[in-house]
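so my prof wants the structure for this chain in the tokens format not the other one, which i didnt know existed until like an hour ago. anyway here's the sequence
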Amino acid sequence: MGDSRQTNIEEDILHAQNVISGLEQFATETRRRNAISAVKKVVDNPNKRFKGGYVEQAPEYFTEKYLIEPVLKLLRLDPWPRPVDLVKDERNRPDYRIDGVGEDFMAIAESKALNRERNSKRATKDINNYLHDQTFLKTLQREQIRYSIGIATDGLEWRLIARDIEEDVLTEIDSCSIAEPVSMVLEKAHSEVDPDEEWIPEARRRMANSLISVFSKENIVDVVRAEFNT
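here's what i got, hopefully its the right format
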């Protein structure tokens, strides 16, 4: 048992390193747009609005394409953008269906521009609406889904919400922030410092114990089951 747990920890740490490498790609794209300073100020201040003029693109689209989707994929989740089969009103559909999570699970994700989840829980509000939507509930029941999972994120704040369909219980399970490592990779991209700086091992450990241990494909099902079976 101890050896198994140690192996899981080591795998989570390796997984965290992959995510940090993905964040560095986000920083590279931000630098390409000459927006490092402006975006870092947003990341460092939860109350600062992310404006499209910083990156010459709609803030939510930029956040999705260069931060949220890459992180979801590095968590080994399989995001399907803009699904049309889950709710009756396609205009109010979730941003992603997450495929292949578990046999009796259905997962969705809602994305917002940087800071929109951190300062107002906008993604969380939408996820709660989806998980209560009657068309979505009928889809789950028809497909014999026991648990619905919602991931609410602005790329910096990550929140896990789930519903036990059979027991009709909905709860917010966990949340974490990766704002600090995002800020650090932006700083690194700005100053072009040595990538082996001292912050990386600690950031890797923290991410393994937060984002990876809850949201990765290897862990998310066990986290949800444990929540409803305690």
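also thought this was worth mentioning. Residues 2-228 form one domain.
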